[in-house]
Records
---
Amino acid sequence: MADKCVFLDRDRTIIEDPGYLTDPDAVKLLPGVELALRSLGQAGFKLVVVTNQSAIARGLLTEDGLEQIHDEMRRQLSERGVELDAIYYCPYHPDGTVEEYTRVSADSKPSPGMLLRASKDLRIDLTASWMVGDSPRDIEAGQRAGCRTVRVRLKGDGGPEQDEDVQADFTVRNLIDAARVILRESGASPAAGKAFESPAAISAGAGRFGEKPEMPIDSMTDSQVLHEILRHVRQNLTPGGGSEFSAMRLIGAIFQIFALAALTWGLINIPGAATCNETYATWHVALMTAGVLQLAALTFFILSRRR
Ligand SMILES: [Mg+2]
């Protein structure tokens, strides 16, 4: 019996896209990708990357260089418990500068060549499979192969190109939500989506449509959860790490600073044995103020996450 598969675009779907990616050290997974792919794998989907790599035809990258980039992507995913079943790439482009690679190819998305080849190589049932990508050409390739489709439109931009003639079956804001749609629509077992209710999944952006998570939690170890949270926090604190300015977050930070100041005030005025009533009152006021400010800070932090 043939397997079901999720075909995945690479750039801006699994990893960040700095333009033409030519350096393995620049490979950076998008937030939440490992959670999404791990859950799809647990649900029995093969995971196959299909990517246009015209940088080779344009002379910016060799096939060996591309292998190194893909080795690094596989290494980062494997470190997080995700194994890809295959990576297919199309090095050709009609406007290339390297003669060997300058031609039209049936593999180049929006043509479905890579998906059709993979279905033969890996015994994939295309009608039970999905194509996920950020670009209309990903969606068209999936549709022409007979797959259902999910378009990922990352928060903060309109995507690489606009083509409203190509309509995906579903449009979501990140790969975690894409995985949730696929698992729901495919009737996957609840166990497959356990990770989506973890703190790490929430911090990585799951469930931002205000939907109640549908699946129970518990598939991640504490160290995995901690690792995911730290990675996400690190990304948000790194300049250019993908976070965007948020007024809500700024207001939350201001409240947080005042809360800490009020707490410090309270600690300075801890009542002793010979304390007068006035110091007691100051201490109570400081602690209550700190509590209220902390609550306000948390409220704004939560609101900033839901935007
Ligand atoms: Mg892409």
---
Amino acid sequence: MRVMVLGGDGFCGWPTALHLSAHGHDVTIVDNLVRRRIDDELGAGSLTPIATPAERLAAWHEVSGNPLGFVELDVAADYHALTELLADERPDAVVHFAEQRAAPYSMKSPAHKRYTVDNNVTATHNVLVALAAVSPGTHLVHLGTMGVYGYESVPADLPEGYLTVTYPDREGRPRSREILYPTRPGSVYHLTKSLDQLLFAFYARNDGLHVTDLHQGIVWGTQTPQTGRDPRLINRFDYDGDFGTVLNRFLVEAAIGHPLTVHGTGGQTRAFININDTVECIRLAVESGDRLDDGRVRVMNQLTQTHRVSDLAGLVSSATGAAIVRVANPRDEADENALAARNDQLLGLGLDPILLTEDLLLAEVGLARRYADRVRRSAIPAVSYWNDSRRTAAATTEPDHSAPAASDIAGGAR
Ligand SMILES: NC(=O)c1ccc[n+]([C@@H]2O[C@H](COP(=O)([O-])OP(=O)(O)OC[C@H]3O[C@@H](n4cnc5c(N)ncnc54)[C@H](O)[C@@H]3O)[C@@H](O)[C@H]2O)c1
């Protein structure tokens, strides 16, 4: 299949592009490289030394014999270029990762809130409008988040996107209908994913677009068999207080002898998935595009396990001897919650989950130790506060993404 991966230079997008290419798909990456510029803004780069896009593409061609396309394009700002590209390529599937994905970053300041909404909602809407205009048969696979469901404890397993509700009609007879599961976003980032859902529902119904929305858990791990084939293919690994997700942050902390920083009581339960399962789920979603219902978005929960944050810290601590420290929670969230969710659809398509084991955790700590000299300890604490009064004045400056992108992509660009 011909597949376009929007946001294919990022943490999930890069290994997905390689996984799809290794499975015989013809892949073109589209990315504006803004994530690399946010590294500069935050002064905290990837733990792993990531190669330039041109080096990555050349390395993949060398080791696999498969060419990858690359187009530097801002999906939110360059609607006309996006439309032309889709009209030229008419991909069978578009995988859409091209959004600002850090909840803490989205809450840093008024400017970061506005950037996150402008970038994410406009990017998604541009893709939908462009597909409806020039390639309505393309299957859109979007990465959403389990966070749209909110983190209230509910006495049921979260369903996959929809809820059947019953209500009395005017005569008092019971009626029922399916609705999108009510969202309860906990940050501006999660809010954009909730807004994305409505855009998908509208364009599926109005224009007959084929859409799969994957509600993904927090991703842990770094490498896949493909990114491990050459040092130039290494995946990015975020450990900082804005982009570092909880388990990856604990693993880096353990590797450098920093206490594991648990926010609040650590009683928060969250959904997780290993990066190798992420890339496989996306392949399964892409290759099953012929199974969609007309006019209805397919929502699949992309998680394999749920864990309590304090349990994760305990696991990493007992495997590595790291100390645990409780720090004030910068987020506005419940101290404790229960969480269980269905993932029948991806299991039904053949997902064979990778479960968290001490061996896998130690392998990640080993990788982190290899690059420990690249860690900026001052970047580890999460200092984006949800509550305005605790925010520092410095955090109110505008995010500046205007610096020129890595200028050496021409070799691999098309
Ligand atoms: N990492 C996780 O734990 C996680 C969990 C759940 C869902 N997700 C979702 O998966 C997707 C990818 O996440 P990630 O961790 O790979 O993030 P990432 O920041 O590493 O990658 C996103 C990529 O999109 C690009 N991008 C952003 N805006 C763009 C635009 N307007 N035009 C073109 N490119 C743009 C960035 O440059 C970057 O390469 C996100 O939408 C995120 O919400 C991630």
